[in-house]
Amino acid sequence: MAASLNRELEMTYSTDFRRRVIARVQSGDSKSAACRLFGISRSTLHSWLNRADLSPSQGGFRHRKLDRRDFERHVAEHPDALQRERAAHFRVSTSSIRHALKRMGATRKKNRPATAKGNPQAASSTSRT
């Protein structure tokens, strides 16, 4: 996410540059010619023309229902909980749980129960004599 944020900041045009483009259009150049000259898209120019304030706007931030710290604590305390159980606990969808686990780098793998093949003691305790 940090990489995409840096890319967006690098692509922000200065207020001076925006004013020069708009002045060019207002002086009589066509919008297409101004866009070609300054190397911007028409949609960018249209959004600048429709805005009263030309300063760069702050990007939107996503509100998350799932608190990262609470979720990480829950995963640590209940490592074998199913995604649907986590979803019910936090009152979110299973896809939200899947995305949160992916962001954490956690896998969906569970601890396997002891089997006769992997654990000889389990085999002797479960075998019938």
What does this protein look like?
- By secondary structure, the protein is an all-alpha fold.
- Among the domains are: 49 residues, no CATH class; 37 residues.
- The chain is 57% helix and 0% strand.
- The protein is built from eight helices and no strands.
- α2 runs antiparallel to α3 and α6 crosses α7.
- The chain is rod-shaped and about 85 Å long.
In brief, what are we looking at here?
The protein has 129 residues and is mainly alpha-helical.
Biggest pleated-sheet summary: none
Shape, principal axes of CA atoms: rod-shaped
Distance between the termini: 59 Å
Mean pLDDT: 80
Run of helices and strands: HHHHHHHH
Oligomer: single chain
Sequence stretches where pLDDT stays below 50 over 5 or more residues: 1-9
Number of helices: 8
Category from helices, strands and their pairing: mainly alpha
**What fraction of the residues are assigned to beta strands by DSSP?**
under 5%
Total number of β-strand segments?
0
Radius of gyration: 28 Å
Question: Which percent range fits the helix content?
Answer: 55-70%
Structural topology:
Layout: H1 2-10, H2 15-26, H3 31-38, H4 42-50, H5 68-77, H6 83-90, H7 94-104, H8 120-126
Helix pairs in contact: 2-3, 6-7
Question: What tags apply to this protein structure?
Answer:
129 residues, mainly alpha, rod-shaped, disordered N terminus
